[in-house]
C-alpha cells in the first residue's frame, strides 16, 4: 500500500514538474497533478487486474485522455497540454534507456526484449488516446447535429 501511495505521489509531482516546464497556467497545475494520479492509478489497477503491458497502458491512456478532454471542456482550453502533462508517468523512459544501453553494449537479445516492451507501452498509450479522442469527437459531432435540428 505504501509503495502505491509513493508511486501515485511521484506521478502527481512528475506531472506538476512538466506542467511547470511547459508553462501551464497556475490554475491548471493541480488538475494536471490529478491527471497524473488518475493515469498512473489506472495503470496500476489494470496491471493488477489484467497483467501484461499493452492493455493496462491502453486503459490508462484512454482514461487520461478522457480526463484531458473533460478538463478542456471545463476550462475552455485545448486538451493537448492536459493530456501531455497527465500522461507523463506513463511514458516508458526506463525501458527505452535500457534498450539503448543494451544496443550500445551489443547485447541484442536484451535490446530486443526492452525494445518490444517500449513499443508495447508506446502503442498502448497511442491506442488509448486515439480511442478516447475518437469517442469524444464523435460525441461532439452528434451534439452538433442535435443543435442544427
Account of the 3D structure:
With 149 residues, the protein is mainly α. Helices cover 86% and strands 0% of the residues. It has 6 helices and no strands. The chain has helices spanning 2-21, 26-50, 54-75, 80-87, 93-104, 108-148. Helix 3 runs parallel beside helix 6. The longest helix is centred in the last third of the chain and has 41 residues, at 108-148. The mean pLDDT is 92.
Tags for this model:
149 residues; mainly alpha; 6 helices; 86% helix; globular
Cα separation of the termini: 52 Å
Unreliable residue runs: none
Coarse morphology? globular
Mean pLDDT: 92
Count the E strands. Answer: 0
Assembly context of the chains: single chain
- SS-based structural class? mainly alpha
Order of helices and strands: HHHHHH
Helix content: over 70%
DSSP summary: helix tally: 6
> The biggest beta sheet, please?
none
Gyration radius, in Å: 17 Å
The proportion of residues in beta strands is: under 5%
Amino acid at each position: 500500500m505504501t509503495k502505491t501511495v509513493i508511486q501515485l505521489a511521484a506521478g502527481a509531482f512528475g506531472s506538476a514538474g512538466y506542467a511547470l516546464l511547459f508553462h501551464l497556467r497556475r490554475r491548471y497545475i493541480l488538475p494536471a497533478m490529478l491527471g497524473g494520479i488518475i493515469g498512473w492509478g489506472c495503470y496500476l489497477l489494470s496491471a493488477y487486474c489484467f497483467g501484461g503491458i499493452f492493455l493496462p497502458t491502453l486503459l490508462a491512456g484512454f482514461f487520461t485522455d478522457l480526463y484531458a478532454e473533460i478538463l478542456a471542456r471545463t476550462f475552455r482550453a485545448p486538451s493537448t497540454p492536459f493530456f501531455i502533462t497527465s500522461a507523463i508517468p506513463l511514458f516508458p523512459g526506463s525501458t527505452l534507456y535500457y534498450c539503448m544501453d543494451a544496443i550500445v553494449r551489443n547485447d541484442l537479445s536484451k535490446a530486443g526484449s526492452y525494445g518490444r516492451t517500449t513499443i508495447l507501452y508506446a502503442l498502448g498509450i497511442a491506442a488509448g488516446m486515439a480511442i478516447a479522442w475518437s469517442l469524444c469527437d464523435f460525441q461532439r459531432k452528434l451534439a452538433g447535429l442535435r443543435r442544427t435540428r
